[in-house]
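The step that takes the researchers longest sounds almost clerical: writing a folded protein down as plain text. The outcome of that step, for a single protein, is printed below.
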Amino acid sequence: MKPKPPSIPMPVQAFRHRRSRKRWPWVVAAGLITLLLIWLVAHAPSESKSQAPVPISTAQVAGPPWQMGNPKGRFTLTLYADLECPFCREYFPQLKRWVGANADVALQWQHQPLAAHEPAASAEARLAECAAETDGHAAFWQAVEWVYAHTRSDGLGLPEGLRYPDLNPAVERCLASERPEALIRAQAEEATKGGVTATPSLRLHDRQTGQAILLQGPIEGDALLSAMDMLAAEDSVTSPTTEMPADVVGDMPR
């Protein structure tokens, strides 16, 4: 039996050379990927700068009229009010609670500053409109509540030197413009043409039947429910939108 020839060890250099020849395509590929990632990162900021800023949600700021409650509810309740009217100031928190307890109603505001309460009434209406123009529906109602909490009413206006806490450059620019004044005047003229002669007054509109009822004065909760029932009973095919007298009385939740 012949002895087995001894194995000859492979030179270390040759082994390393062979391994390096197998790895170089992967090294090149990794380098290309790295360069690609660096290029993408370097170009990302310039692309983002060229994009237009994201617009504010129209669902948040669309208006006026400014609303609270369920915008898809069957009934729309329009409140004609004056921010210097003491009866409006007393009535508003009650009406807000009633709307919050009735999921099928949306409350919307319509300005009707009375001549006897000027110029304070229009100045406060401009503040509410500009707050809403800047920050939407919730900001409008927040401004209304702030005015009612601080005004001396009956045309005396806000205390001297009192500053609205959410006043900012955007609101100030709006106040310096003619936009809010034109809107307030148009709403007041529309209310007068529609037969509104006092504040607060309400117009309840049934979006399903097309019927509406004008309710003068601070209307209590049971009266509003009765008006809703009456409007719901009307035939929208034979009766277009009309105004009907209110002669129902109830109790507003307090």
Notes: The CA atoms of residues 75 and 206 lie 5 Å apart.
